[in-house]
Amino acid sequence: MVKRLFLCATMMLAIAISARADQVTTDTSLTNGKATTSTIDSGTSAAIVPLASDTSIDLWELVPSAWGVDAGSVGSTTAKYPRNGTVGLSVDYSSLLPNNAGVNGYDFIFYGGDQYGDQIGGQPPVFPEQLSSKTLTLDTTYKLGGTPGGDVDVLFDEWLIPTQGYNGGSSGAMEVEVLPFCRFAFGCVPCPTIKTFTEPITVNGTVTFVPFTEDSCQLGAGGDVLFSPASGNGFSNAEISFNMMDFLNEAATEASLSGWWVAGMELGTEYGDASSLNYLMTISKLEIDQQ
Fold first, then answer.
1. Could you report the per-residue pLDDT of 47-79, keeping only the tens digit for each?
2. Type and span of the H or E element at 69
3. Most buried by CB count within 10 Å: which residue of 99, 188, 201, 288?
């Protein structure tokens, strides 16, 4: 059975519905949300976007997580849902404190579960999902615009958990970071390198074998495995499609994890190491294929 999450414009959704008969389509197009606008500033609660036709069904959550921004900073970070086929993650600070931090925050879309047991999504695809040889294909279109400055990335921030019902937090889970774009002043390799991991990724319709540097400061529970572009900064504006399960299984193998689960999906942008920032990440498509 194939289970899909769609976060895209109406035309893309119509194409997807015409797919083969054994496919279960999840109708989570941006145009089907309830709110005309869902805007939240850093320091406030995240916004849950429900299905317009049945508000008991949560489609996704928008999370502006400015966890490392000092109270003396001037500006804000917001996550906006304007029902025009996109999600906008905006970072706008004229004074960012501390301005020497590698990462001050992470604005993201959340679907499925996390390491604390939180759950968002009333339709398939279903998370947590056990790691396996099955595919977990992501297809997304995004763009970084404005003046990013400082450190900036595009980040899939995934959490591997030991059991399906795990809710014990980061210390008992393992973080897996997949960065299709990364431009940091100190480089995107903060930990010792394990190897170069090459993955076939479809970029703007063309299959490309992309080498990633695989790094880890600590493997296993409480640890982190990070995949960043091995050369250059990666893709700041593109449609990309790839099998996330390849990265997750690779990380689990290096950490000798058996029978673990991926909690859910998170896609967004990190920022930091700048006195001022003014940029926008727009996401016009996010399709998750469970197969």
1. 887 776 777 878 788 888 888 888 888 888 888
2. none
3. 288
Q: Read off the amino acid at residue 191.
A: C
Tell me the residue type at 90.
S
d(CA 218, CA 194): 11
The chain-wide mean pLDDT, for the chain, equals 83
**Topology of 2-290 in CATH?**
Jelly Rolls (2.60.120)
Nearest Cα neighbor of 2 from 21, 18, 28, 15 is 21
Question: Which pairs with CB-CB distance under 8 Å and at least 24 residues apart come from 13-21?
Answer: 16/287
Helices (H), the chain: 10-17, 244-254
- What would the pLDDT profile of 94-122 be if each residue is shown by its tens digit? 999 999 999 999 999 999 999 999 998 87
Instruction: Give 30's contacts (C-beta < 8 A, 6+ positions apart).
Output: 7, 8, 9, 81, 83, 84, 85, 86, 87
Specify whether the CB–CB gap between 173 and 263 falls below 8 A. yes
Distance of alpha carbon 213 from alpha carbon 220, whole angstroms: 18
In angstroms, the first-to-last Cα distance of the chain is 6
Task: Write the CB contacts of 41 (distance below 8 Å, at least 6 apart in sequence).
Answer: 64, 76, 77, 78
* High-pLDDT (> 70) share of the chain, %: 83
Phi and psi at residue 248, to the nearest 5°: -65, -45
Give the integer Cα–Cα distance in Å for 153 and 185: 11
Tell me, what DSSP letter sits at residue 235? -
Residue type at 135 in one-letter notation: T
